[in-house]
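A reminder from the course coordinator: this example appears on the midterm review sheet, so study it carefully.

Given structure:
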C-alpha cells in the first residue's frame, strides 16, 4: 500500500498538518540545538589555553600580508641609505688621510 511506502512518519494525515504543527519548529531549542557547545558550556583545559597564548606570542613576532611588503620597502630604503653613508665615510677617511700625508 501507499502508506507502507511513505512510512509511519509521513502518513497523509500528518503531512497535511505538517506546516501548522509546532512539533517541528526550533522555538524549543532557544537558538541552540546541542550539536556544538556554547562557550559557557565548555571549560577549556589550562594546557590548551597556554598553547594558544604561546602560539599567539610566536605569531606576533612575524609579519604577514601587507606588512611584509611594507617592511621590504623599508629595508630597501635603509640599505640604500647604508650604502650612501658607507661611501661618505670612506670618502671622508680618504680625504683625511690624503690631507694629513
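Designed residues:
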Amino acid at each position: 500500500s501507499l502508506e507502507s511506502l511513505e512510512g509511519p512518519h509521513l502518513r497523509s494525515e500528518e503531512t497535511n498538518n505538517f506546516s501548522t504543527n509546532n512539533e517541528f519548529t526550533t522555538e524549543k531549542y532557544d537558538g541552540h540545538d546541542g550539536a556544538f557547545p556554547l562557550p559557557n558550556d565548555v571549560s577549556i583545559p589550562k594546557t590548551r589555553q597556554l598553547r594558544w597564548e604561546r602560539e599567539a606570542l610566536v605569531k606576533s613576532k612575524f609579519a604577514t600580508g601587507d606588512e611584509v611588503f611594507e617592511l621590504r620597502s623599508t629595508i630597501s630604503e635603509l640599505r640604500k641609505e647604508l650604502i650612501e653613508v658607507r661611501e661618505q665615510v670612506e670618502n671622508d677617511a680618504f680625504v683625511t688621510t690624503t690631507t694629513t700625508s
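The CA atoms of residues 27 and 95 lie 88 Å apart. Helices lie at 2-6, 12-16, 46-60, 66-100.
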